[in-house]
């Protein structure tokens, strides 16, 4: 006996994602790294934006609060590594970071200051379909010419 899989059409996922994106943009903008109390634990989709609410990165997590804390450590978040590389690769002592190595300490300090002074964190609780919503929002933003620091996904597509 074959089990039928329920599939949501891509057009519907895009429509839902556009609504979520609009809702996300209207959420309170949380300053890095001193407004932790404004973030609830639990699953959701989040966005890193500049001070004009232009998207920089879109992500999803099983625990948004934990993921917010991950942004303080270059080894724990690809957005931080990509931003650091983009902003500081011409520094005299620049050394590429990875999931096992941070940037040199002075660049880490500059990167923390950059996050605090120029970026904000937005999130919306979502209990299921986070990956699909995240991927659709990335597609929507990328198709409208917005450069994101997201790493291309390879999730069975």
Q: What letter string, H or E per element, gives the SSE order?
A: HEEEHHHEH
Mean pLDDT: 92
Instruction: Estimate percent helicity.
Output: 25-40%
Number of helices: 5
Task: Using the coordinates above, name the CATH class.
Answer: Alpha Beta
Structural class call reads alpha+beta
* Biggest sheet features: 4 strands, antiparallel
Strand content: 5-15%
How many β-strand runs?
A: 4
Spans where pLDDT lies below 50 across 5 or more residues: none
The backbone outline, from C-alpha atoms, is globular
Summed up, the domain count is 1
CATH superfamily: GIY-YIG endonuclease
CA-CA gap between termini: 27 Å
CATH architecture: 3-Layer(aba) Sandwich
Strand order of the largest sheet: 1-4-2-3
What name does CATH use for the topology?
GIY-YIG endonuclease
What does the radius of gyration come to?
17 Å
Can you give a write-up of this model?
This protein has 157 residues and is of the alpha+beta class. The radius of gyration is 17 Å and the shape is globular. Strands 1-4-2-3 form a four-stranded antiparallel beta sheet, sandwiched between helices. The two termini are 27 Å apart. It has helices at 10-25, 64-70, 78-88, 105-118, 130-143, and strands at residues 30-31, 44-50, 55-61, 119-125. The chain has one domain: 3-Layer(aba) Sandwich (GIY-YIG endonuclease).
